[in-house]
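Hi there,

I know you've been waiting on this one. I reran it after we fixed the sequence typo, so this is the corrected version. Both the input and the resulting structure follow.
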Amino acid sequence: MSVKVRRDVKEKLLKYKDKVNWAEEIVRFIEVKLREIEAEENMRRIIEALSKLEIKTTPRSSVELVREDCESH
């Protein structure tokens, strides 16, 4: 893969090539971005799947639910 940059950017990249491995930085950026995109897609799929579930609940308070759970132990 190659990347085109403006001439002034290329000059700065060359100036700091002994301090930064630019290829490594670009690969790292791409990997992070891909993970972010995949996480967003996975979250979207999970939300979509959850929205299709039929969850039957009764209008009970959290206090009642906690009490019931404690008493079951």
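Quick highlight: Residues 7-71 form one domain.

Best,
R. S.
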